[in-house]
Amino acid sequence: MAMNYNAKDEVDGGPPCPPGGTAKTRRPDNTAFKQQRLPAWQPILTAGTVLPTFFIIGLIFIPIGIGIFVTSNNIREIEIDYTGTDPSSPCNKCLSPNVTPCVCTINFTLEQSFENPSKECEPYRRNEDKPIAPCGAIANSMFNDTLELFQVGNASDLTPIPLKKKGIAWWTDKNVKFRNPPGTDPLEERFKGTTKPVNWVKPVYMLDSDEDNNGFINEDFIVWMRTAALPTFRKLYRLIERKNDLHPTLPAGRYYLNITYNYPVHSFDGRKRMILSTISWMGGKNPFLGIAYITIGSISFLLGVVLLVINHKYRNSSNTADITI
Amino acid sequence: MMPSNGTRSLLWGLSEVEEKMGWRQSLQGADVPMGRTIYLNEPLRNAFCENSISTAKYSMWSFLPRYLYLQFSKTANAFFLFITILQQIPDVSPTGKYTTLVPLLVILVISGIKEIVEDYKRHMADKLVNSKNTIVLRQNAWQMILWKEVNVGDIVKATNGQFLPADMVLISSSEPQATCFVATSNLDGETNLKIRQALSETATMKTEKQLSNLSGKIKCEEPNFHFNSFAGTLYLNEKSPISIGPDQVLLRGTQLKNTEWILGIVVYTGFETKFMQNAVKSPLKRSKVEKVTNMQILVLFLLLLVMSLVSCVGAIYWKDRYRAEPWYIGKSDYDYHSFGFDLLVFIILYHNLIPISLLVTLEIVKYIQALFINWDEDMHFKGSNVYAMARTSNLNEELGQVEYLFSDKTGTLTCNVMTFKKCSIAGITYGDLSSKSDDGAKGLSQSPCFISDAYEFNDPALLQNFENDHPTKEYIKEFLTLLCVCHTVVPEREGNNISYQASSPDEAALVKGAKKLGFVFTTRMPNSVTIEAMGEELTFEILNVLEFSSNRKRMSIIVRTPEGRLRLYCKGADSVIYERLSENSLFVEETLVHLENFAKEGLRTLCVAYIDLTEIEYEQWLVMYKKAITVVKDRMKTLEDCYDSIEKKFLLLGATAIEDRLQARVPETITSLLKANIKIWVLTGDKQETAINIAYSCKLLSGQMPRIQLNANSLEATQQVISQNCQDLGALLGKENDLALIIDGKTLKYALHVEVRKCFLNLALSCRTVLCCRLSPLQKAEIVDVVKKQVKAITLAIGDGANDVGMIQTAHVGVGISGNEGMLATNNSDYAIAQFSYLEKLLLVHGAWNYFRVTKCILYCFYKNVVLYIIELWFAIVNGFSGQIIFERWCISLYNVIFTSLPPFTLGIFERCCSQESLLRYPQLYRISQTGDIFNIKVLWIQCINAIVHSFILFWLPAKMLEHDMVLQSGYTTDYLFLGNFIYTYVVVTVCLKAGLETMSWNKFTHFAIWGSIMIWLGFFAVYSSLWPTVPVAPEMTGQGSMALVCPHFWLGFFIVPIVCLIQNVAWKSIRNTCHRTLLEEVREMESSGVQVLRRDSVQSFKVEEVNLQRSSSPRPCQVIFRNNSVDLGAPHGYAFSQVERAVISQEELVRSYDTTKNKPQKTFSSATLE
């Protein structure tokens, strides 16, 4: 094909069109943009120019890190493994498939009172997700142990701790993302024609007696449906709300945990744990971020020192023009 | 597709190197069958192609299929198409069905729009041409029709100044003897007019009636692309067939000149015209960077395969470990998961490792780079208002890597304007003014070519001496008379103006020079010339013209002076004149010194001398001469011997010096390019002497430089002299020496033989300067090809004429001078500039910048993709190689299209390593891009490893941060996507900041791209996660934004994660810059420390310059002792003279055929068609 033939040649014999316009008529205005003379900042990266940055990063990060670390350490957390793999555990019996339903109880002591509200028990286990049909496998494997917490009183009488089951899911999940089938009929009617997932004990419309926490908007279900990223994960189970400001939510003392053991994890070496934790502005306990800040701050400071030395060493020699191409 | 002219001739050329102009001859030699019959005045029997042309790539209907075909023949696009298809298989894709399709469509649409815009321009141009008017004979009457309606067999009438609409055979014309003139500069680049003459049988057919009654047929060859050949036969009824040759053919694309009208029968139309057949696509050139990039894409593809395989193996291992499938994964889901299936899943998962947007990004970036070249005011030639033009944008970065520059001479280095500059008469030089005052010299070197008069010979001393009866007055008179008489120039009078038409530009310059001094050559008649010497009219009878040939190096003329004496005037090379001087000749020594001085300045010198003949002498000689011209065998030789016998005992008059004017700033540009480590070879079709002269005047050669001259007649001799020189060089062979190699085309033919080639190249590469003279166009291309293949360096060829097309197409980068010599070189070039000196800016600034830009853009595109998609691999490790994605699928596919699309553009468009002034001032900076060290497979690996480290940090740091899933104030737990969004945000920030780290020059666009991209993502994140359920996309993103953006961990990580990634890069960069300061860093520091670039006295800049001086390839005196006589150590000779030799008509016939006292015939000669 004739590609470089330019019809314009025949018209006026002028040079062919450039990609940008016609040869004869274009008169580029002499702008800084077109002449590539836009004002620009040329950063010079040498030891001398960057070392203040390193020191500043160090000086900022280390205090931040310390602050985070302290906050994290102030968070109280107690962890109880109730998988039952240990023969001495009261839940050991639940590993046998014959015992259904299985209820086991665990006694534990809080040595300090849990000042700030909260909460929560969560199962720890290995998990693999394969959302081939997002409502399939994940929903099917929904966690269905029941945990109840009692305070052991002076006369060994059990005071149940009220566990809040609403408000554990994200607001958007509860109110936007998860919706029950529309209608005014009872839920059972609206779910007519569906069947419960294989591993479930109860159908979806019988998850809770509260109409506002049943069906798809059951918060246990919603929490479960937020699939975790890592194999070991926590899920919010219940909230323990502080009643008033005067008394600690969970005063120091002996407690009694009653578990309805439904969820098998033994087959894939899973573990289940209940964790009681207080909550701060940065959520639960995790010293990692604090340590990371402190480490990076220190490294940065150290690099600053190294650069200072290098700068000192090479500043003189650079003027003697030791240039190589 | 049509085979290209250039390629074809090259193919032939490599098999048989022909003599000068073998290029054309080989084309003519091709056998073309007589395939076409055109019936006169029987339009229905002539069914050939239409005359409408289309240079567009696409039509309305063919656009889609053709465009898609072109796009998907690119490997990367095909790969993404393949991925898209894979994604359509149910359940295979972890990222949904359309996540590759949409970006691919976006990219296809963008480049589609670009194609449409470009094609629309072509359509418009075609339409303009197709709808031009012309007059044809239809139904016995002249009718005005459009060009596209012209058919084969039509009789067309064209008038003066018109372009011809199709190829036609001339029937008759308005001029006597049915001649006409056409300008062919569009076709072959020659500026002179060509004469065409109709057959005498048709010359009288001028009226409608005659033409309508014409019956018969024309048989001719099939359409082909040879401009200078045509074979046909005219069969007129009841007459014997007449053969038609190229002299009767008028081609499309040519313009009718100096002819009132012509009539012609159309023989070829539209695409079958020779013009269109020649308008070939230049060979597709790929830049080195592009090749490396393709390699790198392949590397990434391998990485992708390796990752997929590793993941598959991981998946198998995981399944094996949990032999019994976990109950929580439904059995049915896992049944069909075989190895192959997994592999597909992972290929889809990781496929974005190959940057989908790279190609389109590069296309746009390079397009804009090309625009910058087009816009550059520094490369705007105000004289003809021509801007530089990037005809391709593929090679922008290649401009930064040029190592060998092959330059044509005439029209490229020189203006092809000769001016009489100096002379030496009777031992006194005149015209030396300019060299005495420095201002003059400066003005000269910068004078644009077209202002010619101001710089001509101008020395009042000469006229004063003449008028004031200086002792040398008679010599001056004789000298100027000689200049007026002894030549083959034809004067043309237009009113009071006399212009001179000459086949030799030297002669024209001399005659013009003499005219300025009051010796005006006015009239040429077959047997005499008339001059006006200071107002006095003198007529010289021309008795004989002793012709010029490059063998003889002189031309003489025998005249009878007005006084009735016989005199022989001679002008020629110093060497030949000096050996013929009589003992009585004066000023021999002085003139010799002057000649040497002229030569050192690069002026073309001629010696002039005369001798008075006696009648007897002349009679005797005439007898000999008459005998000689009748000799059949070896006539030339006999004639030359005969001439020689009378050219003796000369009396020296003096010498002339003609300046072959260089283009503006050529010596400076060459010096600068040499500093940039670019080796410059001059390849010229011109003579050796001329080439050497120019090499001196443009500072390629200096006075002391030894010149190795290779002129041999046989393979053995060539081999011998080359190996002798190689031996002499000894250890210096292979290094750059201060030597010049000069070789002629004939010797080069042998030197490029397979056995000698290597040796020759070794020798040539050891010389600082290489001049190749008397090359055919084919040899020019061949030598470029040899260097290109053997040295593996980037070559650039620059030229302006049709004879440079071959080398322009062969070299990696072809640059055409868009000047006077027509369009052929420009049309086949990759870049067109108006002046040789613009090469400096094109290479040193645009080339270097574009190289930095393109390579950084590519590396960055690779980097950002590796960073994001390797994260999937880390995630696969923790999720049992299930193929789960950690990000929302549309975020993944918009990564390249939106969130990180701007930084590559700013890198590719605005990146500057340092300012234009510095690049021009320190040409050494060019070596950074020239060596290509900043872009190769090793650099890619380093970049990839860096990216993998970054992605490692970017995954594990947030993963550890969110390890306990409890980072929200109210105790809510999070999910994988929450982590994914953290990571994604940090990736965008890190990748944008990394672009900032790579950017050496931040302008407002850079700021916008870097900070803007981060803001765009954050904004998008906030909006996107609140779309559901209003807009049915991304339910899983619901609430992510509102949760993440208020999470303290998110913002704490926002600052620490990118810093962790980049702190190492910053530290490494600054340590390297401090400990190992490069010239570039030095220059950049100088610039940013505010040292005025123009202040040369600044301490730092002075130091840099000093260093540069030491480093520059300063001419080391060459200490080689040459033991062979091919090396010329002496002072240069300045002799050079251009003249047409062995033309169809001899010089004598030529001068005899004119009588300028009559008005017609008016003819135009080719001027200096040697080049």
TrEMBL record, chain A:
Q: Where are the transmembrane segments?
A: 44-70, 288-310
User: Which terms under GO biological process does the entry name?
Assistant: lipid transport
Q: Where in the cell is it found?
A: Apical cell membrane; Cytoplasmic vesicle, Secretory vesicle membrane; Golgi apparatus; Membrane
Major location category of this protein? membrane
Record-linked InterPro entries? CDC50/LEM3_fam
Stored Pfam families: CDC50
- Entry keyword set: Cell membrane, Cytoplasmic vesicle, Disulfide bond, Glycoprotein, Golgi apparatus, Lipid transport, Membrane, Transmembrane, Transmembrane helix, Transport
Task: Using the UniProt annotation, give all residue ranges assigned to the region (Disordered).
Answer: 1-28
Lipid bilayer topology: Multi-pass membrane protein
What cellular-component terms does GO give this entry? apical plasma membrane; Golgi apparatus; transport vesicle membrane
Family per similarity comment = Belongs to the CDC50/LEM3 family.
User: What is this protein called in UniProt?
Assistant: Cell cycle control protein
Q: What is the lineage of its organism?
A: Eukaryota, Metazoa, Chordata, Craniata, Vertebrata
